[in-house]
User: Fold this.
Amino acid sequence: MEGTVLRTADLSAYFGDNRVVKDVTLSILEKMVTTIMGPSGCGKTTLIRCFNRMHELVPGARVEGEVFLREEDIYAINPMIVRRRIGMVFQRPNPFPTMTIYDNVIAGYKLNGVELSRAESDRIVEESLKKAALWDEVKDHLRRKGTFLSGGQQQRLCIARALAMNPDVLLLDEPTSALDPKATAHIEKLMTELKKTVTLILVTHNIGQAGRVSDFTAFLYLGELVEFGPTDQLHTAPRDKRTEEFLTGKFG
Amino acid sequence: MLDERLDEVKGKLLKSASLVERMVEKSVRGLTRRDEGLLLEVIEQDEPGENELEVEIDEACIQLIARYQPQARDLRTIMMISRMNNDLERMGDEAVNISEGALFLIKRPEVKPLIDIPKMAKEARKMVRDSLKSFMEEDTQLAKGVCQRDDIVDGLRDQILRELITFMASDPTTIERSNHLIRISRSLERIADLSTNICEDVIYMVEGKTIRHGRFGE
Assistant:
């Protein structure tokens, strides 16, 4: 499909015998924000962890079905390369505690053993921090530890770290659930900027956030993709009764 | 985010207002110049365009509320845009009514030279324009001025009615044509009324004060 950067076909994810994602088929359009929304425990995080082959790292976990990144089967690619092309930001900010801000940004290169010249690494750090709207706040403290920053800044540092690898897709797993409203607003604004250069997939159970930032929304319930469509349509006239009930607070 | 999308909707509302103002102008010009083409343009092209814009703005307002859960002034603005949109669509309908009446009249001799109807139309169009200007510039003084100008239009309508009653009483063959002229003046008066509705909404949007139904100055 034209403009599709990532797509799944009949994707199921298991923990042992427990199937937590069930036959999900969806296409993610390039340079858009797509939200995966649903009540706690519906399989949102598991689903996006299949997109960058992190699900299989859990003992006893496995995946059925297919995931394509630009029409390449990601399960036929080295998982390390998949994770470079599909970055991830987690619920709680997790900068490497022993590393400086500078080293945190280029950690992906260091941990992959990629040698960078000083000039190149300076350029990547500055560009990534600028994209993550953090540069102005930290440019004079690049040699301080990442943990010296506030929660919201730490999360933007993690976004900069993911962007440094120049990914095609950035997965954001409830990136603001540990942040206060001001830091949340900052990250939401950042998402609308970032989508100009990278495709974003956001997991959230926050209906308001899904509405504010995303172009497309998928509603997942009990591991099943109930509905997927433009956010404008899904938030005003959902087709499925379960989506309607979730949006109106009847469950979840 | 919300601000950008709100600006887009405001832009569409402005487009709708300028279309409606043109419709009013064309319908009365079509009558005075006996130009059937202009009148048909209002009915066949402008009215469907205005209806389409109304639906677009309406959908956008619902989407903004559903997606951004606006509060305070943002909420008042969206609610008022929704009401203004409805008022503009009704003004468009009145312009169609004028055109339909005019299509009847231009094929028949004049009851009397048309003086007050063009005057009324000029005033009503200015009220439409100023009501939207007060909205875009959040100018409540201008909005209050428009509300007060409604009396001028009402006065012209009463004058037209009195005059035409005299014509109908002296020559019953003018009744049908006079009736059309009275309905046209009534449409123009409705357009002016709907402009004052918009101005009342602007005052509520900016100041959070309701002045509808005579609550001016409370």
Observations:
- DSSP finds six helices and no strands in chain B.
- The interface with chain A takes residues 1-2, 59, 62-63, 66-69 of chain B (CB under 8 Å).
